[in-house]
Amino acid sequence: MAVNDALAGTHKIIEEAAAQRHGQLMPLLNDFSQELTTLNLGPTHPATHGIFQNILQMDGERIVSGVPTIGYIHRAFEKIAERRPFYQITTLTDRMNYCSSPINNLGWHMTVEKLLGVTVPKRAQYIRVIMMELARIADHLICNSILGVDTGAFTGFLYVFQEREKIYEIYEEVCGARLTTNMGRVGGMERDLSPAALDKLRAWLKSFPAVMKEFEAMFNRNRIFMDRVVNVGPISAEKALNYGFTGPNLRAAGVDYDVRAMNPYSSYEDFEFDIPVGTNGDTYDRFIVRNEEIWQSLRIINQAVDKLPDGPYHADAPHYYLPTKPEVYKNMEALIYHFKIVMGEIDAPVGEVYHAVEGGNGELGFYLISDGGRTPYRLHFRRPCFIYYQAYPEMAVGTTLSDAIVILSSMNVIAGELDA
Amino acid sequence: MNPQESAAAPEVAVAEDPIKVQNARVLALLHQLFGEAAFTDVEEPYGLLTATTTRERIHAVIAGLQQDQELKFHFLTTLCGINYPENEGKELGVIYHLHSLTQNIRLRLKIFFPVADPTVPTITDIYNAANWLERETFDFYGVIFTGHPNLIRILNVEDMDYHPMRKEYPLEDGTREDKTDLFFGR
Predict the structure, then answer these.
(1) What range(s) does the NADH-quinone oxidoreductase subunit D domain occupy (chain A) (predicted)?
(2) Are A360 and A97 in contact (CB under 8 A)?
(3) pTM, two decimal places
(4) Could you tell me if residue B155 is inside a domain?
(5) What is the per-residue pLDDT for A420?
(6) CA of B172 to nearest chain A CA: how many angstroms apart?
(7) Which of A255, A380, A390 is facing B128, going by the closest CB pair?
């Protein structure tokens, strides 16, 4: 009954409005020149690669304004983290930028290590660098190949996804997982780089450059691709800085800010690498910068593998680093520490730490306030996506719908990181 | 050679920690620009200069830092809210992280204010990046940023009637008994 009543009410409103229009506004009904179309793009649209909703006002093909709505996969990580012991927060970081979870995991471990004052041995730092750079390559490969898909080239996507698969196989050897890796531990890595992992890594380092060259040959000077991306969605360096851009998107605009170079962590100062920058900050520049960063990451991995020092793969920090299983079964102290760590019985020192790493999308920061308890008092994630996605409406206005999709794709907004 | 070396050695010893030297320089500049009374609780946890100021001053301080020709704090790294329910009259806070990319200086500014009157001037007119961050802080903590162009919830649903990151809302239902663990205090 209630539904019928409501429907009757709606019909009445429509009839009244029609009657009014018949009286006064009839001529305007046929005049579409002033009329804007409201287009609801998303939240689940195959071209947005994630849960993004944009309500666009369109004037024909042109976008007049856009209002993004976010939060569709908000999981309240900052709240959940306030009740979890530090090691259990790693699994939350996995689910932020799930295209490059090792960077999130290891960045979080480094934050806790900074709070605890634990120094990680060189070998662990180098292994971390290798894993983080592999993650960066996987991240950039996805972003760039999907940009290819959005401009009509599906082949490159399938071609480099095979390489991402090989990177995931290396993750498997190192931590046992593929997508949500939960890699490393506070104090180092959970296990040493196995000979099998090193073999896979070396084989991949040999085979990948050829694939990458082919991928670049397909896109970099491709007429069709360039027509779709050059001068699409440009942003100036000043604006990008004001909007809090970081990572490849900021570097494409011409600012050479890279956390790895400016505030080196995990021994990045030991490696030689260049920071590619663009000039226009348009979609093409973002694409080229990411491609070049893949080459630079390869350079770093090659150096790290060559210089990989011997020694322990974790710090001697029994209060925080889980002892090995055989030790737990044989040794009373190890058993106690195992119990205390797993049950989250370890109190952290009082302090506040901000630690930033260069994530796949830019400066990934962890702001941790500890009040001396077992869990963080407050943990804030600086998610690069969340901050730079604000600029999307401004970049999309004035372009066509197809360009807006390409711009979104080239910004590499990851829903998990956006909504945390 | 020897006298020179010995003369140089103490200087190196004095300038042992470049971060401390830099922080002292930044702090001196801050005092010079805004007066010593503007900042309290100056600390350097893990090398990051931290100062507390007031919400009346915060907009002028951040605008001044952004325009200052020497420091050039052009970059807002992040801002977030915080809740200390036991601090009478200073229950809520907003924490700003600024970064000067030209000189690689990071600065953390804090303001605290009563939960009964959670208004703070917006800094969206200084940094566009602050727009969503302030919306997030409003969403989580109920901090009202006066002058914000569009202060609505961002991550949670519109019709939520509380601010979930405040400490008064425990993560789990307090009446549940199946999860209490008397031996380990959880």
Answers:
(1) 150-419
(2) yes
(3) 0.88
(4) no
(5) 84
(6) 9
(7) A390
State the pLDDT at residue A149: 92
Residues 329-388 of A with CB under 8 A from B: 343, 345, 351-354, 356, 363, 365, 367, 369, 378, 380, 382, 386-387
Q: Among B81, B136, B94, B143, which Cα is nearest to B115's?
A: B143
- How large is the ipTM? 0.87
Q: What is the pLDDT of residues A313-334, one digit of tens each?
A: 999 988 889 898 999 999 999 9
Segments forming the whole domain that contains residue B42:
15-123
Question: CA of B141, closest CA in chain A: separation in Å?
Answer: 11
Is the predicted pLDDT of residue A38 greater than 70, yes or no? yes
How many distinct structural domains can be found in chain B?
1
Which CATH architecture best describes the domain A79-419? Answer: Orthogonal Bundle (1.10)
Q: Is residue B146 part of a domain?
A: no
- CA torsion B1-B3-B7-B9 (nearest 10°) is 60
Check if the beta carbon of residue A140 is closer than 8 Å to that of residue A248.
yes
CB pair distance less than 8 Å for A74 and B155: yes
Residues of chain B with pLDDT under 70: 1-16, 173-186
Chain B contact present for A133, CB below 8 A: no
Q: Chain-wide mean pLDDT for chain A?
A: 89
**Residue B165: which of A70, A79, A351 has the nearest Cβ?**
A79
DSSP conformation class of A36: P
Domain annotation covers residue B157: no
For the cut 50, the answer to whether the pLDDT of residue A1 exceeds it is: no
Cα B177 to Cα B183: distance, rounded to the nearest angstrom: 14
- Map out the domains of chain A as residue ranges: 1-34, 79-419
B39 touches chain A (CB under 8 A): no
Residues paired with A68 in a beta bridge: A54
For A71, the closest of B75, B101, B155 (CB atoms) is B155
Task: Looking at the complex, report in whole angstroms how far the Cα of residue B139 sits from the nearest Cα belonging to chain A.
Answer: 11
Query: What strand order describes the sheet that includes A350-358?
Result: A350-358, A363-371, A378-382
- The neighbour count for residue A160, using CB atoms within 10 Å, is 24
Is the residue at B168 inside a domain? no
Q: In this model, does residue A282 exceed pLDDT 70?
A: yes
For residue range A338-365, list pLDDT tens digits in order: 998 888 788 889 999 999 999 999 999 9
